[in-house]
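Q: Make up one entry.
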Amino acid sequence: MPAARTSAVTAVGIVVAVTAVTGCAEKTDAKGSDVVRVTATDSKCQVSKTTFPAGHVKIAVQNKGSKITEVYVYTPSDKIVTERENIGPGTKATITAEIKAGSYEIACKPGMKGDGIRQKITVTGKGATKTDPRLDTAVAQYRQYAQAQADLTIPAVKKFADAIEKGDIAAAKAEFANSRIGWERTEPVAESFGDIDPKTDTRADGVEAGQKWTGWHRLEKALWQDKKIGADEKKLAAQLVTDLEDWQARVGKAEITATSMANGAKELLDEVATGKVTGEEDRYSHTDLSDFYANVEGAEKAYQLLKPVASTSEPALTKELDKQFTAIKKLLDTYREGDGFVSYDTVGKTDRKDLADAVNSLAEPLSKLAAAVAK
């Protein structure tokens, strides 16, 4: 899901949930002279050092602005190296990432929109970091998992697109949520390419100036709000298949490290916090809980693969993560209906607050996973 995460269409009734979730950034400072400090405001993105050694890099972010912000590290081609979303005003977050030598940009995105305020950085040296064969295995297995999810998505999205091609609104609605599951489980990998996510998963309020609105949510609006399938929708459905086949072909080329897996797991929880809990993600279909569960599944997969190493360095952390993953899945299971979940518009304010609290309880320890595997 692209950068725009909040909208005027958000119901007043879920403000409590949003407030609860936006506080999940860490409140502790990263110590040490090797830390790269980023101070974000509504108009600036100040970086404490623009040249530093390759390897495991710790980026300490402080948001001194009035808006929720995001911080990204981009390659010159705008491929995402690492990111942290949902950093509330007055809060701090620490990002641990493995960065190779090269030229990059650090971007702060006040309001979580646009290309961000950017600062050029240079990473030097060979980045000699210790390696653990267990992490190599975890990365290889996660790469297989990401590919499998992309492979599973294509036939599902083709069924969705075929129903649209036939003009069958009921059948298309029935296939919509299922067509998104594999994507939602591994969304940080897809987002790392930079150009695929805006074409496939942009919401109405995330469309940038000059950008044509395409993808799942444009079709979702046509099916549930406009209640029509025309020539444009048929073309958009075919384009969605093409764009996702591009993603499928590129997943195997994604740059994946142990820390990017850990950060990606946290990003999936941020996706839940800023779209699913609020009801903004699938605002027309109200299939948010399906996306919610898929995000949690994807985060848990990355965690389970990294757990052998994390449990050695931080046994208390993995014990807490086991507890919180179990709790949030148990809570989500109470909303199951048939093969899917209840419509999210039937979930009341109090229940949404409970879901937000569960996300917070998992997001806080999950934010420490990257540091645990980097030790």
